[in-house]
Amino acid sequence: MKERRPRISVVRVLVAWVLSAAAILFAAWIVPGVSVHGWRGAFVAAAILAVLNAILPPIIAALRLPYTLVLGLLLVLALDALMFQLTSRIAPSALTVDSFWDALLAAFVASVLTVVLDPIFRSDDDETYMLRVTQRIARRTEGETRTDEPGLIFLEIDGLGLPTLRRAIRDGNAPEMARWLAEEGYKLTEWETDLSSQTGASQAGILLGSNDDIPAFRWVEKESGRQMTCSKPADCAEIEQRHVTGIGLLADGGASRGNLLSGEAEQVILTVSRIEEDKRANPGYRVFFANGFNVTRLLVLFGWEVILEWTAALRARRRDVRPRGHRGGAYPFMRATMCVIVRDLIVFGVITDMMKGRPVVYATFSSYDEVAHHSGLERADTLEALRKLDQQFGRIARARPYAPRPYEIVVLSDHGQTQGATFLQRNGYALAGLVHESLESGGATAVGSGDENAAMVGNALKEATGARGDGKQAAPQTEAAVLASGNLGLIYLMDADRRLTLEEIEARHPRLLPALRTHPHIGFVLARSSEHGAVALGAGGMHRLADGHVEGEDPLARFSSNASRHLLRTDGFEHAPDLLVNSFYDPVLEEGCAFEELISFHGGLGGPQTRPFILHPAQLPVPDEPIVGAAAVHAVLTRWRKTLQGEAPVPEAVPEPARLA
């Protein structure tokens, strides 16, 4: 395959030069310690800065630094200031800078104006420069794979349900994906999640081919007294170790970008199960740091995202929008981290992988999921986060002609989300409070609720920067541990080191089950009866899962047609809770309630949270039968990879319900 290089347009270079000169003049006007001698001086300074940026940041990017991400950000930020100082030394008649801090502030202010002006003039110079640098780095480091055999790029939008995507495409909030459907022969395929409709279980199934014994985002393992969490690096590493069988989607040369699990990839960045990679010299960030202006631009966009969140939160309060989530504290900065820093690093990582010709890449983008949890499923700022992701997907697609192999791009989600006021907002007490009041003695402790992305980033950052965490987390020592995973609640009665039966729970805590199953905001409770096996209990009836017998009103009637099979499978997990609680679901209003403080949620059954999608080229075939379960998605994606890359195709995916029956 003959190499193509992005063409540099003289007109675009001139436009970029003018913009850069204007940005330097603006910075000199704002920063007292910086002076520019007219437009002539600004043009000279802009030219010198461009040359320095082409020479110095690639040297920093080539250094094999431990803690590459953190040290790289700091070094390149300092280098931005030094480049301003060097320019003032090289051409004092054009630019003068009094101090390092003046230079740093000038670099930041110039980036502000550049970020504002670039979309207006659409110079595209930065994208062309990035592609040329990426190609050069790919040739000089590790080499590149040049072949006509297609590669696969999987772009996961965390938390985006098919119904939401369809409306976003219709309303112009995802124009790039809309164009793929209209002009490039793409099609949308729906799949159904497992009962644990959250990222940990879905990615284990998609990337590793199995998500057995992952009952929720958090769970307790009674025999060891340990609490497992899908966002903790140590726990993610163990989850991966338990499920690795050699059939990982990314085995044999693949790359993992921004995922919880690696899928047996050789190359990883921002992958929680292998966060140790970020403690060492990780070349995956090299292209990003090769352009010194990326860091100041990132800080500008980060600050702007924080301002957008503060503004949106004030508007929601002023208008008394319902439901309304907690949006204060550290959340605006977490939102900016996911919507700007993590997103851009992953985009650069994916494009680098393409220029190296890696056979398969899987990248997760969590910005939509993060904003939806707190803003709502389809609020204006949530859809804006989706629009910006869609824009980045266009950037990745435009890089394909310059890669050393052809690529097919597939966009998919790991689950959707359902919306509604939280259990606490509706009742004035949490699920743990209800359990506590219903126990005969002792007490209940709520553990580990909250935003999964915040926990993931916090834990990963702690590990990646060398801070020592607590490693394995012990389960609480109270009588009952109550864990929330969206609208799925897990109750472990800790006075036994095994799962208690329905009859034992009724004997020990006779008020507990009636309080749960008759609560208006609880849809059903899963328990294991010594007489009937797994049963789903509701206010007006019982559903025996093994034989499908229903007494009274079926508590599963408002949920998926596969609900009983999902529950029966979860009941068979070694670490299933004593009682598994799912919130109510109103199909008319399309709402339920989370047991943690997230107004848009996922984790259990009910609504679009169980309806993710795959957006794929039509020539990549899908089974005729419904795709149910993340492991079935793994089979489909693995078949595509094997077919495209010349291997014998694997058998058609077996739908999850058939394996559960």
Strand order of the largest sheet: 8-7-9-3-10-24-4-25
What percent of the residues sit in helical stretches (DSSP H or I)? 40-55%
The whole-number mean of residue pLDDT values reads 88
Biggest sheet details: 8 strands, mixed
Shape: elongated
Rounded to the nearest angstrom, the radius of gyration is: 26 Å
- Terminal Cα span: 48 Å
Total DSSP E strands: 25
Strand content: 15-25%
Output the structural class. Answer: alpha+beta
Low-confidence stretches: 648-661
Q: How many DSSP H or I helices?
A: 22
Helix-strand blueprint:
Blueprint: H1 10-30, E1 34-36, H2 38-62, H3 68-90, E2 95-97, H4 100-121, H5 125-140, E3 151-157, H6 162-170, H7 175-183, E4 186-192, H8 199-208, E5 218-221, E6 226-229, H9 233-243, E7 255-257, E8 267-269, H10 286-289, H11 293-318, H12 331-356, E9 360-365, H13 367-375, H14 380-399, E10 407-412, E11 418-419, H15 423-427, H16 431-438, E12 444-447, H17 452-464, E13 473-474, E14 480-485, E15 488-493, H18 502-508, H19 512-517, E16 522-529, E17 533-537, E18 541-544, E19 550-552, H20 563-571, E20 579-583, E21 585-586, E22 591-592, E23 600-601, E24 613-617, E25 627-628, H21 630-644, H22 656-660
Parallel strand pairs: 3-9, 3-10, 4-25, 7-8, 7-9, 12-14
Antiparallel strand pairs: 1-2, 4-24, 5-6, 6-13, 10-24, 11-23, 14-15, 15-20, 16-17, 16-20, 17-18, 18-19, 21-22
Helix pairs in contact: 1-2, 1-4, 2-3, 3-4, 4-11, 5-12, 8-21, 11-12, 12-13, 12-14, 13-14
